[in-house]
Structure formats: structure tokens, C-alpha cells
Amino acid sequence: QVQLAESGGDSVQVGGSLTLSCVVSGLPFGDYCLGWFRQVPGGEREPVATIDSTGGTLYQPSVKGRFTITKDNAKNTIYLQMDNLNLDDTAMYYCAARGHGWCLLDPDSFRVWGRGTQVTVFE
Q1: Engineered SS bond to 81: which of 3, 47, 68, 70, CB 3.0-4.6 Å?
Q2: Mean pLDDT score of the chain, rounded to an integer?
Q3: Mind listing the pLDDT tens digit for each residue in 46-95?
Q4: What is d(CA 67, CA 50) in angstroms, rounded to the nearest whole number?
């Protein structure tokens, strides 16, 4: 059974930093595209960043230069380093696995999801 477990969400002041983690089990970790997404109440789930089987990355334009997605194949874990956070970054953050090694910034193309971790940015 494939499982994804996010952690690291917290409340942080504008301009601060936070690192999210997602431990993946039940699939050949290094072979799949993995990604981070976020959603606010009443809003659609939007892509944040993805990392493919070769380590190639894609970012939503609003987070490029501020967020960094990485993975540790030995720990079956992906990370999202978030710097210079702003109020618009407040959301529930989810990690997800796609059924291919290559990525699309499209939530509908991802098949397995974690339960999410809340990030709240305050002034």
C-alpha cells in the first residue's frame, strides 16, 4: 500500500522559513515523480513544485526562487524548503506521487496523496 506522510507545517511570521518533509512508502521511490501542492479553504489544489526520477524540478512561478524541492532516495523522503514566506503561502500543503518518472505541474496527473500539513504565515 502506497502511503505518503507529510510533516513540518507550522505558523511562521512573514519573511520566515519552514521546511516540510514527506516520507513515502510502498512504491519504488526513485522511479516516480513526486510533488508538493497546496490548497486553501474553498480554493482549488494548486501545484507548488515537483521533482522527477532524475532529480529534475518544476516550480510554480509564484514560489520560484523562494522554495526548493529536494529528495533523499536513501530516506524515501522529499522536502520543501520554503524561504521568504508571505501571507499568500498560507495553505494546507500536500505531497503526492505520480504514476510516472516524469512530472507535470498538474494535480490531476497525481494518483496518491498524503493527508496534508498546515502552513500559516502571519504578520
Answers
A1: 68
A2: 96
A3: 999 999 999 999 999 999 999 999 999 999 999 999 999 999 999 999 99
A4: 11
Grid coordinates 520554503 are at which residue?
82
Residues in the chain: 123
Report whether pLDDT(99) > 90: no
- 58 Cβ neighbours under 8 A, 6+ residues apart: 47, 49, 50, 103, 105
- Please report the DSSP string for the chain in residue order: --EEEEE---EEETT--EEEEEEEESS-GGGS-EEEEEE-TTS--EEEEEE-TTS-EEE-TTTBTTEEEEEETTTTEEEEEE-S--GGG-EEEEEEEESSSS--S-GGGEEEE---EEEEEE-
Closest by Cα among 93, 108, 111, 103 to 6: 93
Q: Which three cell numbers stand for residue 48?
A: 507548488
Q: Give me the sign of the Cα torsion angle 51, 56, 58, 63.
A: positive
In angstroms, the CA 11 to CA 92 distance is 12
